[in-house]
Amino acid sequence: MILVVLIAVLAAAVIVAGFVGIVRTRRRPDAEPAPSAVTAEPAVAEEPVVVAPVKEVAPPRLRDRLGKARALVGGYLAELRLRAAIDDQVWDELEEMLIVADVGVSMTATLLDDLRAQAREQAIASADALIDALRADVAERLRSGDQALAQVPGDRNVWMFVGVNGTGKTTTIGKVAEAAVADGASVVLIAADTFRAAAADQLGVWAERAGAQLVRGQEGADPGSVVFDGMDAAAGRDASLVLVDTAGRLHTKVNLMEELKKLRRIVDRTPGALKEVLLVIDATTGQNGLAQARQFSEAVDVTGVVLTKLDGTAKGGIVLAIQHELGIPVKLVGVGEGVGDLLEFDPDEFAGALFA
Ligand SMILES: Nc1nc2c(ncn2[C@@H]2O[C@H](COP(=O)(O)OP(=O)(O)OP(=O)(O)O)[C@@H](O)[C@H]2O)c(=O)[nH]1
Ligand SMILES: [Mg+2]
Q: Which residue of 17, 51, 77, 317 has the lowest C-beta tally within 10 Å?
């Protein structure tokens, strides 16, 4: 009898142990892990944890944003490629294409002279080969300037943005600030546009978004004193990049151009800090941008051009005119209104995209 009871108790214990074991091994994968005793054995993950990848926004591609300019030039190129021989008509159409694309009369003449010489020397016989030679020539000419933005590690780097009204100065500064902060820079934005309170507010939105410090003054304040305070603040926080936003002004207004010179002098009180004076030109204004560039350059010694709104114009050739006639390299191009829509200018990519 005792033996029977003992066997029954043992059997019951085995069944309960087995049941507990089943429950343990069937824990839901998403359940909290059971508290485990300290053990020398490494923990073994029951299920691999799959984390959704962070969705990265790819930078825009220049060729995708040059839609209008590519459509215009592409129309001519498609026609030209059908020609059996390089005759006068081919040369006329090439000339028309370059003028319509806003390459400018002088640069067009230079490019075509070059191309004629190449065609003779290398016995170029097909329109296809001629277009390839043109593309290479354009890239070569655009490469002649120093495209890189001056930024010395460990230095205070000040970039001043100038230009006529509405070209995209404030927007470009916002885009640059965002990228620089993401790169680990300590960035100060100076709102030297004191004509309208809204101008500093607009810069403030970009500053907040990027995580940059904003220095602004009252509406109507002397822009010089704002720049002065901004340089002080930049020194205080040991900022690596300082972006100065100036009010849009007509290049023909002498007093306003004098004001720009003054702002420049205030930045220059920190010797060597001013690394770039960037003229922001709206590409849709075409050849008029050249006149602006000349006047601004005379006033404040422009070191580079930011060409904005390339996404909205068929006149992409203006890049060539600027570099050829003014010797000022295009350093950045704006290809949209979004924060990521700013690209470092790449001559080969540009020539390839335009004369594909
Ligand atoms: N499509 C397009 N729009 C742009 C680009 N850059 C700027 N814009 C737009 O151009 C308009 C003017 O830009 P702002 O940055 O305010 O120009 P600004 O030079 O600071 O203007 P002011 O301070 O008034 O002289 C805004 O609507 C911008 O969104 C660009 O690359 N492409
Ligand atoms: Mg502005």
A: 51
- Classify residue 266: in a domain, yes or no: yes
Residue 273 lies inside a defined structural domain of this protein: yes
Q: How many domains does the chain have?
A: 1
CB 189 within 8 A of CB 169: no
What is the enclosing helix (H) or strand (E) of 161? strand 157-162
Ligand 1 atom at minimal distance to the Cα of residue 173: 15
Domain coverage including residue 188: 157-302
Tens place of pLDDT per residue across the chain (356 aa): 554 444 554 444 444 343 333 333 333 333 333 333 333 333 333 444 444 444 456 889 998 898 889 889 999 999 999 888 899 999 999 999 999 999 999 999 999 999 999 999 998 989 999 999 999 999 999 987 788 999 999 999 999 999 999 999 999 999 999 999 999 999 999 999 999 999 999 999 999 999 999 999 999 999 999 999 999 999 999 999 999 999 999 999 999 999 999 999 999 999 999 999 999 999 999 888 899 999 999 999 999 999 999 999 988 888 888 888 888 999 999 999 999 999 999 999 999 998 88
Taking the CB of residue 312, how many other CB atoms lie within 10 A of it?
Answer: 18
Asked if 66 and 353 touch (Cβ cutoff 8 Å), the reply is yes
CA of 114 to the centre of ligand 2 (A): 40
> Residue with structure tokens 């120093």?
146
- State the Cα torsion 286-288-294-295 to the nearest 10°: -140
Closest ligand (CA of 164) = 1
Q: For position 289, which CATH number holds?
A: 3.40.50.300
What spacing in Å lies between the alpha carbon of 191 and ligand 2's midpoint?
9
199 touches ligand 1 (CB under 6 Å) = yes
255 belongs to a structural domain: yes
Instruction: Kindly state if the Cβ of 337 falls inside 6 Å of ligand 1.
Output: yes
Site to substitute for ligand 1 among 62, 171, 245, 341, most atoms within 8 A of C-beta: 171
Residues with CB under 5 A from ligand 2 (ion): 169-170
